[in-house]
Amino acid sequence: MKKLLNLILLLLTTITVYSQADYRKIHEYGEYQKNWAKVKSITGEYGMIDRSGKEVVPAVYKKIEKFTRDNGNLALVKSITGEFGMIDKSGKEVIPAKYSKIGTFNELGEGLALVKSIVRTYGMIDKNGNEIIPAKYLKIGKFNEIEEGLALVKSIVGTYGYVDKNGNEIVEPNYSLEQIESKQYKIIEN
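-> structure tokens emitted (190 positions)
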């Protein structure tokens, strides 16, 4: 029985060491996610493995942050080309790494985060990575800051309008800031 137990222990150790031989560095387990360790591949990319050495997040990222976004449910990742996305606690990329910046959820609107595209325009996404407000504006304001239930947006040509929390343009961005401030605009009836 003792020989069998030693053989099983030797086999498990060999499997774990062999499976981790592809990594330059293995961080401490539990530092980023319970029972996971962040790993750095031979080529310098980061991923995550579980205690058995199984890859749970592919080693394809330039950077992986701790799970601090959305009350600890999401972690920011950076692709090797420099774009940001987010992974969830199962290791799935829920927000594709295609943004040059991802803001904090609920900062400008409940359940939404501001994103900046690689062409320097802004939009908003939900926690599932759905682009609720397309990333096509030069600026997006905070919801309810000026008009109840709406956020001020600035178009790429420099005109202003309002969008709602579903991404609908309630006031098309065809107005100057002065017209918006003095409420000289037409609300679109849906």
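The domain at 2-99 is CATH 2.40.128 (Lipocalin).
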